[in-house]
Each structure stands twice: as structure tokens, then as C-alpha cells.
# Entry
Amino acid sequence: MTKRIDYTKMRFEDHVRDVDVVLDPLSVDSERRSLGVLKKGGILVTLTEEPRQDLVRESGVRATMIGVRPDGGRLADIGKIIDGGKLRPLVQAVLPLEQAKKALELSRSRHVAGKIVLTI
# Structure
């Protein structure tokens, strides 16, 4: 079953229970909340920071982090695909470097539908 949850209007933990996997791209304040919706034996996968293993053990679930390593060759290939018009990045805002603080605040607001670009 697929359930849509608008995080701007509701807390996911109030609407979801006993799930097998939580993919957490934020990890800011959602780790405890994510652990609470997993069923025993489930797994939390984070993208931004290592999960706290003490909390994981208490919850009876597993947790791991998936990270990536920069790869210049792959980034160049992606650049060629973008230049060729086959992939268009979604840009939310373009700001001058002097507004980096504003860009960071916008990013942290979690209301960004695309990338934030800083120009030099």
C-alpha cells in the first residue's frame, strides 16, 4: 500500500506503523521518529549521518548509512548528459555568493523542491 504524507502538514509517525524500511534523507531530528515506525527487525537507512547505534539497539531494529564518494569521471559524464539536454536539474533558486546564509536557511527549511545554486 502506498500512502502519501505531506511532511509540511503532518508528522509521518502519526500515520505510519510497522514498516520494514525507512529511508531517511534528513537525519536532522527524524532518527528517533523513524525508529519508532519500524517493526522489529526492520532497518533504518540514513543518507546524511551515521545512525546512533544505542538508539537502534533499544528499538530492536537495524540501521546503516549509505554514503557516496565523489567520482570526477562520473561527474563529467553527468555534465555531458546535462549539456546534451537529456537531463535537466531542477533549480529552486539562484543566489549570489553573498547570500549563502540565506541559501543555507532555505535549504534547512525543507521546503526546497530543487537545487539551490550560488553564483560567484
